[in-house]
Design goal:
This protein has 251 residues and is α/β, with parallel strands linked by helices. The chain has 9 helices and 10 strands. Bound molecules: adenosine-5'-triphosphate. It comes from Desulfotomaculum nigrificans (strain DSM 14880 / VKM B-2319 / CO-1-SRB).
Length: 251
């Protein structure tokens, strides 16, 4: 396995209407790292994740996942290496039962049914929703849908977990459960989010985007306490680092 598991080299992307969403992005993510991608609305986070997973292809520059260059021809290889969880789990769950959604990926890769069943049950147990296997995904709560979407990724046994806003629409308990779950995974994790408290807790490294460019890339605890930088990028310090309005204490 490559030591540099994800490599963006001077990547540019413009949408068909001409909007330049990614403007020369370069970074390397190493095996086992947990990286938060942050930035204000429209900074380019989702576009970057779609480029990484081959949903979009760069106009210029190169993206490697392990040794593999991301191109139209290598998409099936890339998708075996990367598990991508969309911002809205409804975009990912489309079968009639949770079981079938989690089985979809492995079945699609021609894995035999006994092995599919093993993988599905292991993935459902990992995220704590084995009891929901026969339920229709659209009848699940937001937190349960998020868990099912993550199980659907885990059943593919990916090297890298890529997540777009995983804590959106989760109540505090479901958010806490998800963070604990993700903390327990040894996968390389790349998470685009506005939840800077989660980044502080889960990701040792943060990449800050602004206007399709990397403005800062470094240790989360340093970046997320740099008020000047955060303000320049339309962000605020994580809530856990802001003073308590009742007692006035600061961490
Ligand atoms: N399909 C599209 N066509 C044209 N422009 C787009 C399209 N999708 C996104 N954009 C634009 O590209 C830029 C980057 O968008 P992107 O969704 O990557 O930002 P983001 O950082 O994920 O934002 P958010 O935090 O709001 O989800 C924005 O200016 C956005 O308006």
């Amino acid at each position: 396995m490559s030591h540099h598991i994800v490599d963006f080299n001077n990547v540019f992307y413009a949408y068909p209407d001409g909007k330049q969403a990614v403007n020369g992005i370069t970074f390397r993510i190493h095996h086992g790292e947990s990286v938060g991608i942050v930035g204000a609305n429209g900074a380019g986070k989702s576009t970057l994740l779609m480029l990484l997973t081959g949903i979009l292809l760069p106009a210029r520059g190169e993206i490697h996942v392990g040794e593999t260059l991301v191109t139209k021809k290598t998409l099936s290889v890339i998708r075996q290496k990367i598990g991508f969880s969309f911002q809205d789990p409804d975009d990912q769950l489309f079968m009639t039962t949770v079981y079938d959604d989690v089985a979809f990926g492995p079945r699609n890769y021609g894995i035999d049914e006994p092995e599919v069943e093993k993988r599905v049950m292991k993935a459902l147990e990992t995220v704590g929703i084995a009891h929901l296997k026969d339920r229709a995904p659209y009848k699940l709560s937001g937190g349960e849908k998020r868990a099912a979407a993550i199980a659907a990724i885990l059943s593919m046994d990916p090297d890298i977990l890529v997540m777009d806003e995983p804590t959106t629409a989760l109540d505090p308990r479901a958010r806490r459960r998800l963070i604990s779950l993700l903390k327990g995974f040894s996968h390389t994790k790349i998470i685009a989010t506005h939840d800077l408290d989660m980044v502080l807790e889960l990701c040792e490294r943060t990449i800050v985007l602004n206007d399709g460019r990397v403005v800062c890339d470094g240790t989360s605890s340093k970046i997320l306490t740099n008020e000047e930088l955060l303000e320049q990028c339309g962000l605020e310090k994580p809530l856990t680092l802001q003073g308590c309005p009742l007692c006035g204490s600061k961490k």
